[in-house]
Amino acid sequence: MEGFRNEIILGFVGTYMVLCVLIGIWALRRTKSTQDFFMAGRDLGIMVTAFAVFSSTMSGFGFVGGPGLVYRMGMSSVWMIGCVIMGFNLAFFLLGKRLRLLSELGDCISLPDVVALRYQNNSTRILISLAIIFGVLGYLATQIMAMSIVLRDILMETQFWSGVSLEMCAAISCSILVFYSITGGIVASVYTDLVQGAIMLIAAIFVFFTVMYTYDGGFTEINRIIQADDRGSIGPWGTLGMVGCLSWFFVFGLGATGQPHVITKLMMNKKVSDARYILPVSISGYFFSALLWISIGLVMRALVLSGRHPELISADGAASQFLQNYAHPVLAGVVFAGLFAAIMSTADAFLNIGTAAIMHDIPKALGINLTNELIWARTTTFLITIFAALFALYTGDLVAILGAFGWGTFAAAIVPVVALGFNWKRATAMAANTAVIASLSVNFMVKLFKISIPYNIDVGALSLLISLTLFIGISLASKAPDLDPDVEAVMDL
Asked: What is the CATH number of the domain that holds 341?
C-alpha cells in the first residue's frame, strides 16, 4: 500500500472535490431566496448547528496554521485552544438565546441586521458591516492559503505536477470554492460541516496515536528532543513569552463571542432551546480535533531536530509533511479530504457573511433597494474570493498569523457591540460606533505600518482592550438610550 501512497491520497482528495460539486448542486435546489442563501432557512437541527460551530472555528486555521505555530513557537499557541473552549461557553451564555430571538423578531438574515435592530442606528450597521468585510479579508485569506499549501504539497509528489506553483494551487482551490459557494450558499457549508466534523473527530484521534508511536518513547521522547534544543519552547509559554501568550488568551477567549462566522450559526437553529445541547457537542468536537493541532506540530519539530526529516521550507507545511511521510496512506487520505472539507465549508461561511455585508447590509443602511438579491449575492461572492486570494498570496504571512489577524479584527469590533451590547441596556449607538472605528484603526495601522508592539502583545488583544474601554466609558457618559419595547423584552429574558 505504501507504493501507492500518493495515488491513495489523491483518490480521497479527488473524491472529495467531486463531492463538493455534488453538494453545491444539491444545495442549489434548496436555495430559493436570500434567507436560504444566508440563513439556511433558519431550520438547522442540533447536530448540524453544533458541528458547524466547532468546524468554523477550527478549519484551515487549526488544521494547517495550528501545527505550523507549534512547530515554530512551541507551546505558545496552546493558549489559543484552551481559551477558545472557554469562549464557546461565554458565547452561548451571552448570545445563545438573545441572538436567536432578536433575529426572528426582526426577520434578520445577517449579524448587522440584528445590530441595527438593537441600536436603531444605520451608522452602526454600516460600521459593523465594514468590520466584517475587513475581518473576512484576513480570515478568508487564511482558508485559501491553507488549501493552496496542502494542495501544492500533495501535487508536488506526483510525476506531472512536481513543479506546480502556489499561485496555480490557489487558482484551482478558488475555482472549486467559488462554484461550491455560489451555488449552495450557507446551506452547502453547514451540511459539509456535519460530514467533515465527524471525519475529523475520528481522524484527529488516530493521528494523535500515530504521533505517539512515531518514537519508541512516545511524547516523552518528543519532549526530550525539543527540550534539548530549546527548553523554553516546550514550556507553558513557548517562545512567545508570558505576556504574549496571555494576550492570546484574552483575545481568543473573550473574542470567541465576536466571531460572526460562529455566532451567526446561533441564528440558524430551529429552536431557541437547542442551544443547551449544541454547546457540549461543539466543545467536545473542538477539543478532540485540537489533538491534531498540538501533536503534529510537536512531532514535526522533533523529527527535524533529530535529523529524521529535513527542515521545513515553511512552518505551514508541518501538517501536510507529516501526513505525507509518516501517517498510514488511508489515514492521510481521509485527513486530507476532511481538511479540504473543513477549509471549504469555513471559507464558504466567511464568503457568506462578507457577501451579506456588501450587498445586503450596506445598501440597506443607505436606503438602496437591490433587485435580484440572490444574483448580486453570487456575484459578490466571486469578487470577494479573488481579493482574498490576492491578499493571501502577497502578504507573506503564515496561515495562523493571517487567522489571528482576522480573529482579532472581528473580536475588537464585535465583542463590545454584540456580546456586551445585547446584554446591557445602557449601551449606546455612539459608543458602539466609536468602538468599531477605534478597533479597525488600531488593527490596520499596526498591520499596514508594521508597528512592533512590546512584549509580543497581540494587536487584536490591544485593539479589543481599547474598544471595550471606549464602549463602556462612552455608554456610561451618555444618556441612556430609548430601546424598542420588543427588543427590551428580549433582553429581559
From this structure: 1.20.1730.10
The β-bridge partners of 269 are 44
| Residues β-bridged to residue 44 | 269
End-to-end CA separation in angstroms for the chain: 59
Q: 490, 98 in Cβ contact below 8 A?
A: yes
Question: How does pLDDT run across 171-224, given as a tens digit for each residue?
Answer: 888 887 777 666 655 666 666 667 767 777 888 889 999 999 999 999 999 999
Judged on CB neighbours under 10 Å (0-12, 13-18, 19+), 175 is exposed
Q: Is 108 helix (H, G, I), strand (E, B) or coil?
A: coil
CA 180, 185, 186, 187 torsion-angle sign:
negative
Identify the DSSP state of 61: I
CA distance 337 to 202: 13
Total domains in the chain come to: 1
Reduced to 3 states (helix: H, G, I; strand: E, B; else coil), residue 44 is strand
Quick one: cell of 102?
432578536
* Residue 21 neighbours by CB distance under 10 Å: 13
Whole-structure pTM value: 0.85
Residue bearing cell 496561515: 399
The fraction of the chain above a pLDDT of 90, given in percent, is 33
- C-alpha grid cell for residue 23? 453538494
Handedness of CA 73, 74, 75, 77 (dihedral sign): positive
Cell matching residue 467? 474598544
Give residue 169's domain range.
2-492
Distances, alpha carbon 132 to alpha carbons 112, 351, 358, in Å? 9, 10, 9
Contact criterion met (CB below 8 Å) for 432 and 116: no
pLDDT band at 443 (very low <50, low <70, confident <90, very high): confident
Helices (H), 213-259: 218-229, 242-253
What is the spatial distance between Cα 479 and Cα 103, in angstroms, rounded to a whole number?
26
Q: What distance in Å separates the CA atoms of residue 235 and residue 74, rounded to the nearest whole number?
A: 8
Report the largest interatomic distance among the alpha carbons of the chain, rounded to a whole angstrom: 73
> H-type helices in 31-165, by residue range?
34-39, 46-60, 66-73, 78-95, 98-105, 111-119, 122-155
Rounded Cα gap, residues 41 and 452, in angstroms: 45
Report the alpha-carbon distance of residue 185 to residue 377 in Å, rounded.
9
